[in-house]
Fold this protein.
Amino acid sequence: MEFLLLPLILVLIAIGVPIGYALIGAGIVIIALTTSTPLVVVAQRLFNGSDSFPMVAVPLFILAGALMNHAGISRRLVDFAASLIGFVRGGLAMTTTLSSMFFSEVSGSAVADAAALGSVLIPAMKERGYPAGFAAAVLSSSATIAIIIPPSIPMILFGAITGASIVKLFMAGVVPGILAGLAIMGTSYWLARRGGFAESEPFDIKKVVKAFRRGFWALSLPIVILGGIFGGIFTATEAAAVAVFLALALGLFVYRGMKLNALATILVESARQTAVVMILVAGSAVLGWYLANQQVPARLATFILTNVTGNAATLLLIDAILLAAGMILHSAAAIVLLVPILLPLTTEIGLDPIHFGLMVTVSLAIGQQTPPVASVLITTCSIADVPMWEVMRVNIYFILALAVVLLLVTFFPGLSLFLPELLSAEP
């Protein structure tokens, strides 16, 4: 009967039930039909699933991203990125990717990244003659790097569920995040040559210096936050609180781009985004408890190990499962639902939990680009006012580039584990 769970979830989503409520509703139905467990357990699991100290970082990083957007910090990051790389063919597209990499070092949310940078960069690309579909595709694929480069909300969720070190997960995301950025920029350059897009502006060292001075405090945010985490000065949750404080201070007192009366709007906006994530997490926790109670993870691991030959094939299968889940589930829901199921399998084949965490993160980053759910893609399509099919005609090239990064992460674990092992090797 547990194999009816996924079809039931998909049916509920198809008829318009929000994903979080679909997970909860499917959990109630399947528990009532297949067990004698009192349904009060659903309420208990909804609470327990989201009652975690590391999870406090989620609303704080969401709030930090919203504050950065309203404070004008994103504009300064864009200007600095443009001064560095705007002279290259397709430079404005590459500026989008580089800006997203800077912004993601504070926000941890791909949707926040897309929303903050999209209002600045998509109109700019349109003015430079870039097609709207291309502009939206570049922004969408670039924004998704936000969940690979630390800090990352999906990594926080993964660490909270598995007990893996969130600091090590953050460190493991640095190299794959840079690789993803380079892959997207390389694809942008290739598409720009095909499309005949010119450079945005000539290189001028004076502009670089000026943009650096204007954006100095904004650029210092990632150094303070990630330096504090990696240096052991504060935890990931404490770092999220520091990010909020610094973004608020910059917006109110340094750049003065934010008014006190805007705080109510910012808090409401952040609360709504947090509620979406936490309902998904809570609903997934109900299903995770049910599946564990029915020993589905152990049975799945036994089935795969019996019928799939070789670790390489098993790793590819894990990637395929995660990619498929990313197409129909929000990344938070996919992590809370699938990680407990797949974890016993990865333990059996000797996969390092940190390595597994990066496979999960990169796979779900790609999932944010693939319909029907595609939360980041939908956000950028809305900003660019362009239909999704038009964006996907271009975005498929960026998805393929990210897929290459996923294969590298999957089969070359040193890319993810190099920095965490370096941390562990320190006296």
About this structure: The first helix runs from residue 5 to 14. The chain has 22 helices and no strands. Residues 2-425 form one domain. Residues 327 and 372 are 6 Å apart (CA to CA).
